[in-house]
Write a structure and sequence with these properties.
Helix content is about 70%, strand content about 0%. With about 300 residues, the chain is mostly helical. The protein starts with a helix and ends with a helix.
């Protein structure tokens, strides 16, 4: 029994739950994160999307079990390796998915429930249709991030800047195209490129390189506009600053951190050749992890302390 539970936990991919932290974005950027009742509700929504994501991962692994057996890394997944039976995985996916959606229907507003339904539909359509369609596969990944951000906004509800959404789209595309670029590099070196992900057959390296550069530029530009338009109008420093800086756009100070993080990700893709798992990169690449931590701390100080 413990072996089955362990295999189920691995198949649920809790390391991928980092993506669902984007649910906190709307409240964080709007300055509402620490309002009464906000954090518990967002944490609840976070776990809802974690369970929905895990449902999609189980279904995806069931569908791809034969293909995963040919992959140098994915062949160790519990379903592909035989550690988790197909029957057990199907039961787990049905119970987890239907149970989570029922809970959402009973405990959240209709907007959040609609986003949850759209999210699981998006994930399933990706696994069964879109993942093998060049370019659209990356757009589907970006759409999933956008749904997460809107879910966090609807659950409260709270406003959200359109430039935050644009920045999320750019970052998601960067991660999606970067992942595919790294997969081509890894599988090419092992001479198994075309046996695992069909869409890689249609992605020339030059196209991926161009898409990565475009996504990076788009992300930096969208975030810069957001930083300019949404910096606190007045701050606790206003009384001691000269008239020239009477309305400082302090969030612009975080733009260099975003640019460094993007370029560092380039380094991870092209030099370290480790971009196949973006969430793993974030945890293991300490310069990138430190940059993200410094970016979050800087935003927190600007929004909640200086501009509070």
């Amino acid at each position: 029994m413990m072996r089955i539970i362990k295999a189920l936990v691995i198949s649920a991919r809790p390391q991928q739950w980092l993506k669902n932290l984007s649910i906190f974005a709307a409240a964080f950027f709007w300055g509402d994160l620490f309002n009464v009742g906000t954090l518990p509700r967002l944490i609840e929504a976070f776990f809802v999307f974690c369970f929905l994501s895990s449902t999609a991962y189980l279904i995806n692994d069931l569908k791809d079990r034969e293909r995963d057996k040919k992959h140098p890394v994915k062949k160790r997944r519990p379903i592909a390796s035989g550690e988790l039976s197909v029957r057990a995985a199907i039961v787990a996916a049905v119970v987890l998915g239907t149970g989570t959606l029922t809970y959402v229907f009973l405990n959240f507003n209709s907007y959040f429930f609609g986003i949850a339904l759209a999210f699981i539909a998006l994930q399933l359509s990706y696994s069964f249709l879109i993942r093998n369609v060049i370019i659209l596969d990356a757009l589907w990944v970006a759409a999933a991030f956008v749904l997460r951000v809107y879910a966090g906004a609807f659950v409260l509800p709270t406003p959200i800047s359109s430039w935050v959404i644009m920045s999320v789209i750019g970052l998601a595309l960067l991660l999606a195209f970067g992942k595919r670029r790294s997969e081509r590099t890894l599988l090419s070196s092992l001479r198994k490129r075309l046996a695992t992900r069909e869409t890689l057959r249609h992605y020339p390296d030059a196209l991926l390189d161009s898409a990565i550069s475009m996504s990076a530029s788009y992300t930096a530009l969208a975030y810069s506009i957001f930083a300019f338009q949404n910096s606190p109008g007045s701050t606790s420093l206003s009384d001691i600053l000269p008239a020239t800086l009477s309305s400082p756009k302090l969030i612009l100070l975080t733009v260099p951190l975003v640019i460094y993080g993007v370029v560092r990700y380039f380094y991870v893709i092209y030099e370290k050749k480790e971009g196949e798992s973006p969430e793993q990169v974030l945890i293991t690449d300490f310069p990138l992890l430190g940059t993200v931590a410094l970016w979050l701390i800087s935003l927190f100080l600007i929004i909640y302390v200086i501009g509070g």
